[in-house]
User: Which sequence fits this backbone?
């Protein structure tokens, strides 16, 4: 069943109504999150084991695996994982470890006809099967059919490759969405950066517009509204719409002809740790990969359907530079919030009625962890 989110005309209606009323979407209640949940090593371990390793979540865009043999290798939930496009066109994911001595087969991204371990030369096909062992007479009783790469659950939907380390995991709510990337979308760049903050603090910065004026005075605020958002939830996920001031131009456009392209940014929060943001010339998929209770790796994929022409590449680059400046401000705030934990000034954080997407996030995170306990 496809997830139903509001159509463009309805989103514009809600935004224009908020502009007129000087209001924003409100949630059903305030949420208080214990500060201990950002500091506790036990809580962090529970998040990794009970949530990250058991949730089907986007690993990379399909465009990163555009051709046979294309792969992306990175850590997911503190576990080396590689996703690769097979000769049959299917995207698969495996634990990134040779079955001989456990060495990671590949790093980063690239394209290969086979995966060969650089330690002793054991070679695996794109389907994960063990194809060859140098001097195999030294392993007389080894059954190659049981020594292929260890698979992890993997599905592909709407231009995204989803993985889970629990092979019995149910289909993700996000996998039922309308496609976010068509066949014409191409990977423009990939960037990695580490932030000295808990992954939840980093996530929270994506999920509300209450900070636009105070944090983004010279970047986003001249183009966007402060504390004006439309918030929708689907399953454990959310979509937050951040309108641009130019959306006022749609007041004189017939309702059924109103289009949101170039008029707002949608941020899709794909639970637990992926943010997909739409911009006029590109879209960003940002993975918030927890490394420690106070450290997060951000892996950002920039995609566009306009990069075939030189002027399209220029537009994408300019748009990316603008977003990069605003993102740097968000990271600064996340690090400042992390440092503030040491003051012990708060025993909990209070999220207001207009921070409903954060409330939805913490409710679902808590429900999983408490249910398992």
Assistant:
């Amino acid at each position: 069943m496809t997830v139903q989110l509001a159509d463009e005309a309805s989103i514009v209606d809600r935004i224009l109504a908020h502009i007129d009323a000087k209001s924003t979407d409100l949630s059903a209640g305030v949420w208080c999150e214990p500060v201990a949940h950002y500091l506790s090593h036990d809580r962090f371990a529970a998040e990794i084991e009970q949530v990250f390793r058991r949730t089907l979540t986007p690993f990379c865009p399909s465009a990163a695996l555009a051709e046979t043999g294309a792969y992306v290798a990175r850590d997911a939930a503190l576990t080396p994982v590689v996703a690769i496009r097979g000769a049959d066109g299917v995207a698969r994911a495996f634990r990134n470890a040779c079955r001989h001595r456990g060495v990671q087969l590949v790093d980063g991204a690239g394209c290969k006809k086979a995966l060969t371990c650089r330690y002793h030369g054991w070679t695996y096909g794109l389907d994960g099967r063990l194809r060859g062992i140098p001097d195999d007479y030294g392993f007389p009783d080894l059954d190659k059919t049981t020594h292929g790469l260890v698979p992890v659950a993997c599905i592909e939907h709407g231009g995204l490759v989803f993985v889970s380390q629990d092979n019995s995991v149910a289909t993700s709510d996000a996998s039922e969405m309308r496609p976010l990337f068509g066949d014409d979308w191409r990977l423009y760049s990939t960037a990695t950066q580490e932030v000295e903050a808990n992954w939840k603090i980093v996530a929270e910065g994506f999920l509300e517009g209450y900070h636009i004026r105070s944090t983004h005075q010279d970047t986003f605020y001249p183009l966007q509204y402060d504390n004006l958002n439309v918030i929708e939830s689907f399953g454990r996920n959310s979509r937050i719409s951040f309108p641009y001031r130019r959306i006022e131009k749609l007041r004189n456009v017939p309702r059924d002809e109103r289009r949101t392209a170039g008029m707002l940014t949608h941020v899709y929060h794909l639970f637990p740790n992926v943010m997909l943001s739409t911009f006029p010339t590109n879209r960003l998929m940002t993975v918030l990969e927890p490394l420690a209770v106070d450290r997060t790796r951000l892996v950002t994929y920039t995609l566009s359907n306009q990069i075939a022409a030189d002027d399209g590449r220029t537009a994408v680059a300019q748009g990316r530079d603008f977003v990069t400046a605003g993102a740097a401000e968000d990271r600064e705030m996340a690090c400042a919030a992390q440092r503030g934990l040491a003051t012990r000034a708060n025993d909990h954080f209070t999220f207001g009625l207009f921070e409903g997407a954060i409330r939805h996030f913490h409710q679902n995170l808590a429900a999983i962890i408490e249910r398992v306990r």
Summary: The chain has a mean pLDDT of 93. Helices lie at 8-21, 41-51, 199-204, 212-215, 310-340, 356-372.
